[in-house]
């Protein structure tokens, strides 16, 4: 059933296109034009914009869902979406209670969370596999910081591997704070399998899980699924996700915290 033409904004068209591509894995321009009720040339322009944003792969006469197969090193990621990560960091820190045990995995967004936590919280025990997180958390003299052993990954500035996972399993925590390379209705996913394993280990030893993720990860897939959305307690982000992802989050029972630009 097609939609009455002329009633959708470009943003709404983009959301509907992404929804259709995710549902079908691939889709033709002619079908999208009929479904949305606009000219094929309008759909082509929309696909160009979505392709340039990395949200889809353009094909001859249509599009397929974009699978995130690579990711910049953490130092490069930290130079993008700087204000968005800072807002997420401050917002997530406000959800952490003094005196708790917190596990934090490696990542550019989790680093911002750790930095904000160190500025406003006290008497935390922080367990992490990230060199950067350990460094900024250790700047707070009231914190006890436990750095995991493991094989150092220079791209992530973190330790990974079996030794890291086994070490994490020795501890209990109130909350695990994790990041992700991508997030869709099936849950968060990560490009680095070793990182995904550490996230799952932290989640298994924590009473709750907080996912911190920037808006550019919405509606995307990466190499390895970390968990189902239903296993996440809180999602902290910088902008409202598209309607389909928001509905999946609500259905899964995760609490969404959006710290948008004021």
TrEMBL record:
GO function terms (MF aspect): DNA binding
Keywords: DNA-binding, Repressor, Transcription, Transcription regulation
Coiled-coil ranges (or none): none
Identification of the protein by name: DeoR/GlpR family DNA-binding transcription regulator
InterPro entries: Carb_Metab_HTH_regulators (IPR050313), DeoR-like_C (IPR014036), DeoR_HTH (IPR001034), NagB/RpiA_transferase-like (IPR037171), Tscrpt_reg_HTH_DeoR_CS (IPR018356), WH-like_DNA-bd_sf (IPR036388), WH_DNA-bd_sf (IPR036390)
Gene3D superfamilies: 3.40.50.1360, Winged helix-like DNA-binding domain superfamily/Winged helix DNA-binding domain
Top-rank lineage group of the source organism: Bacteria
A Pfam entry, by short name: DeoRC
The HTH deoR-type domain, residue ranges: 10-65
Organism field: Mesorhizobium dulcispinae
